[in-house]
Design goal:
The chain is mostly helical. It has 14 helices and no strands. It is found in: Cell membrane.
């Protein structure tokens, strides 16, 4: 039975999967770095208003961890956007999806917690589903500038997920969220002049999109910081892998056609989420005996 934290992560993933149309509209009126700057700053203000007087009690851990996670978060967004100038969206989706198998590896390396065997199986199914969603064109062996930038984005996303779990305990979820969003906003803003991005003309369209996605970013980051106090990075990554499934469902409701490969990918991702939750008694007993045998040999 999923925990309340896992259900909360699933809920924000559903909401996040339905934002593609809003983001696509915003990118027709605004550059990606400036949009991330405005969107994250609005999100920081929203969470700051919710936190109220709690903001007066910031400690060093929250400032340091929030800044580190925020810069990592913004880096993933900026690198992914930059990579899209050179590669197709399907290839970008495939390379970005590499964060799913990277998370358990980073969890093992940074947190010294080996994922459960069923979590590995769930990760494998979810990644296979993401490959199906990306399509065969995304699997070409060529590797250029856009591929490298997007791969770095996937690494940043995986590190962000692990860092949230690393620092989630012992901090206030609202305060650290404000710091993450504020730091991410400043970092994205600094990238605007560095990249030569042109500031957008005033438009209520991109402002409305920034407000909507800023509110959602606030909700998502608060839930992540709260839920990942108890949900492992690997399990969280499997849940987040369902984002394109929910995005595809929204597109289908809007009239998009879903090919068989997309449907198969959705089934595999959902199967991965369910598989990662399973803990068969026979497997637990087998793993227990194996652990005892290794202890005796040591």
């Amino acid at each position: 039975m999923p925990s309340p934290e896992e259900l909360a992560l699933t809920g924000v993933t559903v909401l996040w999967g339905g934002t593609f149309l809003v983001l696509h509209t915003a990118m027709q009126h605004c550059g990606p770095r400036f949009f991330v700057f405005v969107r994250f700053m609005m999100a920081a203000v929203f969470v700051g208003l919710l936190a109220g007087r709690k903001l007066l009690d910031f400690n060093r851990r929250e400032i340091w961890a929030g800044t580190l996670i925020g810069v990592t978060l913004a880096t993933g967004y900026v690198l992914q956007s930059a990579g899209l100038h050179d590669i197709t969206s399907s290839r970008s989706a495939f390379i970005t999806a590499l964060y799913v198998p990277l998370v358990p590896i980073f969890q093992w390396a940074f947190l010294r917690r080996a994922p459960h065997l069923m979590s590995w199986l769930g990760i494998g199914l979810a990644f296979a589903g993401l490959v199906c969603l990306a399509g065969p064109a995304a699997l070409s062996l060529s590797f250029g500038r856009g591929d490298l930038l997007t791969l770095c984005a996937a690494i940043a996303i995986a590190i962000e997920i692990v860092l949230i779990s690393l620092y989630a305990r012992g901090v206030d979820s609202l305060r650290i969220t404000v710091m993450q969003l504020f730091a991410g906003s400043l970092f994205a803003g600094l990238m605007v002049p560095v990249s030569g991005e042109v500031l957008p003309a005033f438009s209520w369209v991109w402002i409305a999109c920034a407000l909507a996605l800023g509110g959602l970013s606030a909700l998502v980051q608060v839930v992540m910081n709260w839920a990942q106090k108890s949900v492992s990075p690997t399990k969280a990554a499997v849940i987040y892998a369902g984002e394109p499934v929910w995005g595809g469902l929204v597109g289908w409701m809007a009239g998009d056609h879903l090919p068989p490969a997309t449907l198969l990918g959705a089934v595999l991702i959902v199967g991965g989420v369910l598989t990662s939750e399973l803990r068969p008694q026979w497997l637990e007993a087998l793993l227990g005996r194996s652990s005892q045998a290794l202890t005796k040999n040591d």
